[in-house]
Amino acid sequence: MSLKITELARANVRALTPYQSARRLGGNGDVWLNANEYPLPVPFEMSQNTLNRYPECQPKQVIERYAAYAGMTPDQVLVSRGADEGIELLIRAFCEPGQDAILFCPPTYGMYSVSAETIGVEYRTVPALDNWQLNLPAIAAALDGVKLVYMCSPNNPTGNLIDPEAIRQLLEMTRGKALVVADEAYIEFCPQATLAGWIAEYPHLVVLRTLSKAFALAGLRCGFTLANAAVIELLLKVIAPYPLSTPVADIAAQALSDDGIALMRQHVVELNANRAWLATALTRLSCVEQVFPSETNYILVRFTDSPTIFKSLWDQGIILRDQNKNPGLAGCLRISIGTRNECERLIAALQALPGTAGIVEQA
């Protein structure tokens, strides 16, 4: 019998469960509240006509503008195809397959494990505490052989910030042993909590950023890694020759102009207001058990019957993200913050569900 093509693939890839992105999960809807995107398009257009030429590996204007925005120097900034590429580049640069490990604390973002598995690097998990903070003693006990510790703050999908004192303790226990990678994809919704300013004090700290969320450019696929210059130099050795296409670099530079940053901050004000409205409205529904505090553009909600609610909304074209399979998140759905109209449509649909008994009157 001839060898099956799939048998030629690496065993770890054959066994791999791919990351289930919102688009892979599909759905036919007109209220998309499952991917933490900005709900409306932004007014950027291509300004260059140089598609016949290869782009710069690290477009100068994009790097300089992001460095200025983030309070870094240009040699401390790397731009890549989304923060997802930054996650993977760090593993490729720092972890020996079959020897080193990464560590993260679920429930959290799913690409840390997928990237490690793809490259053939062990991943270790130390479950977060019940309040979704770091279990520092358990992390300390699991650090042997770990080169990278991934920490998402604000955390996806829970929406909470990690306690800064716990982060300092983590940085102290990993000094000289491992890098701590702070995923700040949602930091624009709580900019006071950024760790970028800590890099000078902790040279083993790396910060990941993106234009996908508050900058409303999820379709652009543009992310940033902030780190000391020595780390950036290593990542430049393993990054693809042309990670950013010319249109991406063109629009990213516009988004990082003074006007572009002002537009982003306007998005944050609008979404934070919608989040507050939605959180209050959700707490009044009898089908809702708990609305968790959030510092992001989404809310995690525990429902009395989340499978039925998820499917009913799905069938009505209101697409949420099911979190039931995540550790500690039984009964939970994640709801991206849409326009006020989309938030109102969601609440109206929940109020109309049979057996939910409508609205619970507040005392």
From TrEMBL:
The modification N6-(pyridoxal phosphate)lysine is found at residue 213. Residues 31-350 form the Aminotransferase class I/classII large domain. Keywords: Amino-acid biosynthesis, Aminotransferase, Histidine biosynthesis, Pyridoxal phosphate, Transferase. Pathway: Amino-acid biosynthesis; L-histidine biosynthesis; L-histidine from 5-phospho-alpha-D-ribose 1-diphosphate: step 7/9. It catalyses: L-histidinol phosphate + 2-oxoglutarate = 3-(imidazol-4-yl)-2-oxopropyl phosphate + L-glutamate. One of its GO terms (molecular function) is pyridoxal phosphate binding. One of its GO terms (biological process) is L-histidine biosynthetic process. Belongs to the class-II pyridoxal-phosphate-dependent aminotransferase family. Histidinol-phosphate aminotransferase subfamily. Homodimer. This is Histidinol-phosphate aminotransferase. It comes from Pantoea alhagi.
